[in-house]
Amino acid sequence: MAARQRIVIAGGSLAGYSAATELTTLLPGSDIVWVTGEPHRTYSKPALSKEFMQGRSELAELMLPDIGGETKGLYTLRERQCTSLDVSARSIQLDDGSGIDFDQLLIATGASARMPDMLRGVGGVFSLRTLDDAMAIRARLERRPSIVVIGGGLIGCEMAASARALGLDVTIVERLGSLLDRPFGGAFGSHFLDLHRDNGVKIHMDATLTDIIIRDGQFAGVRLADGIEIEAGLALVGAGSQPCTEWLDDSSLAIADGILCDAYLAASSNGIFAAGDIARWMNPVYGLQMRVEHWTNASAQGRAAARNMAAATGRPELRKPFADVPYFWSDQYGQKIQMVGWHVGHDRIDIENDGGGMLARFYRDGRLIAAAGVNVPRAVMKLRRQIEQEAQGLEAA
Amino acid sequence: MKIIVDRQRCDGNGVCMGIAPEVFDVDDDLYLHVAESIPDDPELRARVRQSITSCPILALKLVED
User: Fold this and answer.
1) Which of A113, A165, A120, A114 is nearest to A138 (CA)?
2) Which residues of chain A have a CB within 8 Å of the CB of B30?
3) Residue A319, phi then psi, degrees to nearest 5
4) Domain extents for chain A?
5) pLDDT of A146-196, one tens digit each?
6) C-alpha distance from B48 to closest chain A C-alpha (Å)
7) For chain B, is the Cβ count within 10 Å smaller at the N or the C terminus?
8) pTM of this prediction?
9) Which residues of B touch A357 (CB under 8 A)?
10) Does domain A6-49+64-112+242-318 have CATH number 3.50.50.60?
């Protein structure tokens, strides 16, 4: 009898969870070793900056259902970091000095929050990426500090909205001239600005951070290039994220702002796959390489990678490219804001505003490639199919 | 196969609808409508299961036949 195949999943968040769930079902005769840096079970991340930060949901409500354990061939190693990958020896090393050999490996170690150098290591400065981050922020919010949010992107705006929901004094500092510019491709910029201002947020646009103010050893605010000082007891930083690939730097794996993968989520070395925020894959819908840092992508991609891994283990019928129309949403001040598709490279935006909600359509070469909406969830989601079909007809650039 | 929606939790973010629009429909009041019966199509049912595990606020539950 052949030895049991061992599949290692690196990364305990949604992509790893979704792959582990799928693999325990598809390959009951394999050992699946799941390595996670987290002390917690897999939890829902979208809620961290929304309901959880506002105190409207509690820890237990964030936890995803348990997958099961060793009876299903799943062995979970918690609070272990992967430190290196040896492609030729087919093993990974962990921070406790141990090594694990694998037949196949799924890399799903995600992305980490980017922190501007001047803010790194300063007490009273937080980014939000993990449950522990969210709990630390929630504890600080109980002291009811005034807040400066660094970065008016998705996470920054959500944190600002949540802090306002708690009645706190909030100022956003944004490098660009509009809020949520990158995630929404420039659509609804003035709406987002009005929305936050109407809800009492002070906003500094086109602002460059030059200095932080420390008083009695405590963070006390920031200084901008134009000389303005913003007093704050707490800084919440939403300055984007970067894929967690440092541990792979000495491996021969092809990496360029994420692990480079083909349409099947296979990395450059045989038997190694990637999924979630860390994967830059060739999305057949658009004929483009992209890296998507959103919840639904991590879920669907973890599952797709697992199926392609199972395909390499005697289930060839499961092999399928990961063709996906990306999707994310945000909740701010009770407004439902959504984006479906990939707007990068659009040459036209049409915006409809019927008073109750707004819908933006993004086109390239006359083809619908993405759609975004404020309070029109049905209209947005209904365009998903059309986007998928039209994007597939794009000429390769 | 039957789907149970936790109405206290569901906030109409439409993740499920994006994955299986044949079964889930969020209206503009953010109310989620679910198809009464789900066709016995393995591909669709796999997507329905994926919708349920993809719900970021865990508002969906599945009861298999």
Assistant:
1) A165
2) 336, 377
3) -65, 125
4) 6-49+64-112+242-318, 115-239, 334-392
5) 999 999 999 999 999 999 999 999 999 999 999 999 999 999 999 999 999
6) 12
7) C
8) 0.93
9) 28
10) yes
